[in-house]
Design goal:
The complex is a heterodimer. Chain A is mainly α. Chain A is built from 15 helices and no strands. In chain B, 74% of the residues lie in helices and 3% in strands. The chains are: A mainly alpha, B mainly alpha.
């Protein structure tokens, strides 16, 4: 397998998934179908995660396409569309998580949240479709038949394009000003501290340390962990865009993404199997069940793994060969 | 100002050379990893205390968080240990950089802010929860600002060093 395979394997999920998510969320607007709304929100959060490896594997595929003689203008068009779609996908995922948080606290998300999810996900569906289109043009010349991007675009495509970033310019911005990187990495550490502080203390309590703390109020710290996560997704992806090939061909970055995916699964087990509701009822000195402890321990181990892989990214640049089949 | 020769002496010791030049994953980056773990424990615990004092998760009793002050010292101990090793690996790089002294000062101020919160607020059994939060409020704000500054100064060490090793200009 190579990056082109991986990209093709994953890239249909965000394009089709956002349409399904929007459908579920739309049907779930009426209170009697609130389960559909919840499913839509969860799907958006999952897609926000999946879109990251889609984007990163795209850079690997791009290197192969250049070798195959595909026009650079076409590739840049697709990458610019992908950057904008990724941005909106991550924003949709962020407001979806806020919505899930609000539904757990107040039985339904706030009005502004529902409006924001609806608006952002509609825009994301459109941008994903455009990304899929410009990407399809790269490998299916029978559809467009041209090697020149503007020739095959309608008015809408050209309009959207005026908002799309130019990948080369963005990379240059990051590479040529070390202070941009310094600033991003500083924020990345602040995000890290917020995540470790809030999620760490919650997991530690579930494991049975400092049992004088009641669990439910501790969980109210979690939005600050999510703010940290948001900061780190944004600064991490910005750093990636600055030097994409240092990260794509990096085995440790992929391990970090796998660990983050497992953390997502672990969180899903915790929140969707009733463990969360169980531990919410525990007061000071109450013991959490063994299953909750296993989930808490898994979370701590995986976060340590994420930090470890993150720390070693620099060391393992270009650890994946560029040409592989 | 001339760079003192003892920095060169330190760099030539076998410990310093191994930390700096070893290809092993347990070399320099391993120490740096534990410095990162240490800072996330130290600043993470401080941040949770500060956030609670400032009104996040108000239903969580402040008194139940007193154990975090010990955690802060665990993180600090980790970072003194790993920090010494990092300076041993790159003594010229660290000690010729003004940012290094700014960072150490900010860490000292951050720690003393947390210690003040402990002795003046958490060690006073007569204070109610509300009185504790009110009394610690401005110290918590200062603590958050100072820790942000300390993290920033620490990160900037990588970008502001005038020398990489003895006799080799950086930046």
């Amino acid at each position: 397998m190579n990056f082109a395979h991986l990209h093709l394997l994953l890239n249909h999920f965000p394009v089709i998934g956002t349409i399904i998510g929007l459908g579920l969320f739309f049907l779930g607007l009426s209170e009697e179908h609130h389960h559909m709304r919840r499913a839509g929100l969860i799907l958006f959060a999952v897609l926000a995660f999946i879109t990251i490896p889609v984007f990163i594997s795209g850079v690997g595929a791009q290197v192969m396409l250049r070798k195959a003689g595909i026009s650079n203008a076409m590739i840049q068009r697709h990458e610019g569309a992908a950057m904008l779609a990724l941005t909106f996908m991550e924003m949709t995922g962020a407001v979806a998580l806020v919505g899930l948080w609000q539904s757990s606290r107040m039985s339904r998300p706030a009005r502004w949240n529902i409006a924001a999810v609806l608006l952002l996900s509609v825009v994301t569906v459109g941008l994903m479709a455009r990304t899929g289109n410009t990407g399809g043009d790269l490998r299916h010349p029978e559809i467009g038949g041209l090697q020149e991007p503007t020739g095959m675009e309608g008015t809408l495509g050209s309009f959207v394009h005026t908002f799309e970033p130019e990948p080369d310019k963005i990379s240059n911005l990051m590479v040529f000003t070390k202070w941009t990187t310094a600033f991003l990495m500083d924020l990345h550490f602040i995000g890290l501290v917020l995540i470790v502080g809030t999620i760490g203390i919650y997991n530690i309590r579930i494991l049975g340390i400092a049992k004088q703390m009641p669990i439910a109020p501790l969980h109210r710290l979690l939005p600050w962990g999510l703010i940290g996560l948001g900061i780190n997704v944004a600064t991490g992806m910005a750093a990636f865009v600055g030097a994409p090939e240092d990260y794509t061909f990096n085995a440790v970055l992929w391990l970090k993404i796998v660990a983050l995916g497992l953390l997502g699964l672990n969180a899903a087990v915790f929140y969707l199997t009733g463990l969360f509701n169980h531990v919410e009822r525990l007061g000071p000195w109450d013991e959490a069940p063994m299953s909750a402890r296993v989930v808490a321990m898994t979370s701590l181990v995986l976060w340590c793994a994420v930090i470890t892989f993150g720390r070693y990214i620099q060391v393992f640049q270009h650890s994946i060969p560029r040409v592989s089949n | 100002m001339a760079v003192p020769a003892f920095l060169d002496t330190i760099e030539q010791t076998s410990v310093s050379r191994w930390l700096r030049e070893s290809e092993s994953v347990f070399g320099f980056y391993f120490v740096l990893l534990f410095h990162t773990f240490g800072l996330s424990v130290l600043v993470g615990a401080s941040a949770v205390l500060d956030l609670r004092i400032l009104g996040v998760a108000v239903d969580l009793p402040l008194k139940s968080l007193k154990w975090l002050f010990r955690t802060i010292w665990v993180g600090f101990a980790m970072n003194v240990t790993t920090g010494i090793l990092l300076v041993l690996a790159y003594p010229t790089k660290a000690l010729t950089n003004p940012m290094f002294y700014i960072k150490l000062s900010l860490v000292a101020i951050g720690l003393s802010a947390m210690q003040r919160i402990k002795t003046r607020v958490f060690d006073d059994p007569g204070l109610s929860e509300a009185a504790m939060a009110a009394k610690a409020r401005s110290m918590a704000i200062w603590s958050l600002l100072v820790w942000t500054g300390a993290l920033t100064a620490g990160r900037l060490l990588a970008y502001t060093a005038p020398y990489l090793v003895y006799g080799v200009r950086g930046g």
